[in-house]
């Protein structure tokens, strides 16, 4: 049974701290937010790290493709480069993040981005890392835009919850969701209409929306029945009246 996940920080709390970093995940916890969505991908030596892009160019103090780096290179890289007022910190490994989140009691929506690696490598490496950290399964959703990665997760760790991510809900969404035994559907909030929300909910899936940064803009989605939002500004959702969330 997955614990409720009505507000998830998207990549941590990137409006206040560097995205996908330990300091960001600590900040999220300080704010009282109990779930996080973050991205995991692989370095060239198959170390799973928490990072969104396939290169370091956008967020870090260096440029280059992740597959050209290994775990030993991380200490040279500053993932807080866009927050010059904050101390530098390395992009975290999934192992480090899993330990921190477990200690904090933060639920984890782990978005797997394989960026050219095989679906099997992505799924098995991420799951093995979480299992070594004894990360609690009731606080974990494995999610991906990539159907093959989720299919590998189903085969390797069928007991773990899986979330299928879409930009726009396709007409065959339910066939795909059944095939990988999805727990949840994750959709761009701007693309959803009332009929789609009700179809997903009536079929029995949790429905999470990304990336909702204005509570007012998603008022109708809560009323239609969504279960949660991922937000760059999760702190702004803490004051949304509870009756709207459930
Ligand atoms: O979990 C889905 C959400 O994060 C949207 O995708 O590109 O921000 O990882 P992206
Ligand atoms: Mg993501």
Automatic annotation (TrEMBL):
GP-PDE domain location: 5-241
MF (Gene Ontology): phosphoric diester hydrolase activity
InterPro entries, A to Z: GP_PDE_dom (IPR030395), PLC-like_Pdiesterase_TIM-brl (IPR017946)
PROSITE patterns in the cross-refs: GP_PDE (PS51704)
GO process annotations (BP): lipid metabolic process
Protein name: Glycerophosphoryl diester phosphodiesterase
Organism: Neptunomonas marina
């Amino acid at each position: 049974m997955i614990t409720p996940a009505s507000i998830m920080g998207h990549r941590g709390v990137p409006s206040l701290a560097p995205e996908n970093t330990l300091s960001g995940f600590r900040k999220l916890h300080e704010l009282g937010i109990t779930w996080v969505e973050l991205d995991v991908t692989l370095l060239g030596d198959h170390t799973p790290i928490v990072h969104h892009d396939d290169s370091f160019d956008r967020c870090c103090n260096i440029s280059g493709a992740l597959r050209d780096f290994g775990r030993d290179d991380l200490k040279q890289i500053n993932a807080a480069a866009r927050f010059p007022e904050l101390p530098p910190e390395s992009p975290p490994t999934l192992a480090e993040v899993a330990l921190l989140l477990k200690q904090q009691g933060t639920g984890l929506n782990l978005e797997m981005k394989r960026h050219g690696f095989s679906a099997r490598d992505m799924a098995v490496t991420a799951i093995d890392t979480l299992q070594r950290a004894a990360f609690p399964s009731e606080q974990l959703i494995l999610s991906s835009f990539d159907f093959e990665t989720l299919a590998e997760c189903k085969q390797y760790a069928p007991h773990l919850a899986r979330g299928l991510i879409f930009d726009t809900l396709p007409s065959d969404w339910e066939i795909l969701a059944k095939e990988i035994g999805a727990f949840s559907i994750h959709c761009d909030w701007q693309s959803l209409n009332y009929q789609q929300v009700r179809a997903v909910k009536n079929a029995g899936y949790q429905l999470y929306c990304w990336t909702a940064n204005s509570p007012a803009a998603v008022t109708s989605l809560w009323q239609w029945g969504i279960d949660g939002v991922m937000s760059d500004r999760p702190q702004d959702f803490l004051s949304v009246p509870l009756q709207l969330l459930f």
